[in-house]
Design a protein that fits this description.
alpha/beta, Nucleotidyltransferase, domain 5, 2 domains, 43% helix
């Protein structure tokens, strides 16, 4: 879809028009060898099953699979993938004054309508010869994916692009919930929300269950799409994930939604249909 020699449109503009980041166009990160990429794939699969595994437990797991790896290597790979064990840690550091940690607003809140609460998260996507990251914005009550973006770095830019698309297409939520990742605590990201009149909420440190619905999205995406495809390039990954997300929103029934799809539930509630228990 991108023409490097286009006479009028730059690569940056073409990427904007087809809704991919420039980094995704240039392809996955090339900095890891085949063994580390294989280890990262195994770590990712195991982390979906046991998100409380830190580097020590993950290293033990890999050694049981026949890989002679040390904890330092596993720690580095997990950090590169953006993975951290979910247990609570004592708060021993003071946040940067420009990276405010916002309070968690969803405790004991009944969430039963679209655009009441949105959430966002980033996950690692293994490729055949590298890896990418994907961010998604989801409506909490209906599980609908409102926007998403791919990138080969975990910078704030692709998160902002996904948020801007969601706001442009679906209006604004009352509350927006994320974890405490630096992309989401960035003043540029939270500033978009506060300027739109959205209340910002953030999970407790290490508490992935506070954002459990989007974690379930990642699990389904990886087992039903990513692990089966072994994408070669960023453009292949974008096309494959796009097809799966369309299927997820419009065709995949959810038991928690009374057997309806996210699209049916989102539009049904907007039309006055009560969400099934």
């Amino acid at each position: 879809m991108i023409e490097p020699e286009h006479p009028r449109l730059s690569i940056v503009r073409q990427c904007e028009l087809v809704s991919i980041s420039r980094s995704a166009y240039y392809g996955p990160i090339r900095g890891e060898g085949p063994l580390n990429l294989a280890l990262m794939r195994l770590i990712d699969e195991q982390f979906l099953e046991t998100p409380w595994y830190g580097s020590r437990q993950m290293a033990h797991h890999l050694r049981r699979q026949g890989y002679e790896v040390g904890r330092k290597r596993v720690r580095r790979l997990m950090a590169k993938m953006g993975l951290a064990a979910v247990y609570q840690r004592p708060r021993t550091t003071v946040p940067h004054p420009e990276q405010k940690i916002w309070p968690y607003l969803l405790r004991n809140l009944v969430i039963d309508r679209p655009n009441q609460v949105w959430c966002a998260d980033i996950t690692y996507i293994p490729m055949r010869r590298g890896f990418l990251y994907v961010v998604a914005v989801m409506d909490w009550a209906t599980r609908k994916v409102l926007a998403w973006r791919l990138s080969n770095t975990m910078d704030v830019e692709f998160c902002i692009a996904a948020l801007e698309e969601a706001l442009a297409r679906y209006g604004r939520p009352e509350i927006f919930n994320t974890d405490q990742g630096s992309q989401f605590t960035s003043p540029r990201f939270t500033g978009l929300l506060t300027e739109a009149g959205v209340r910002v909420s953030m999970d407790g440190r290490g508490r992935w269950m506070d954002n459990v619905f989007i974690e379930r999205l990642w699990r389904s995406m990886k087992y039903e799409c990513v692990y089966l495809q072994a994408f070669e390039t960023g453009s292949e990954a974008r096309a494959g994930l796009g097809r799966w997300i369309t299927y997820y929103n419009s065709q995949r029934p959810h038991s928690a939604l009374g057997g309806r799809t996210p699209d049916e539930t989102y539009m049904g509630i907007l039309d006055g249909i009560e969400l099934a228990a």
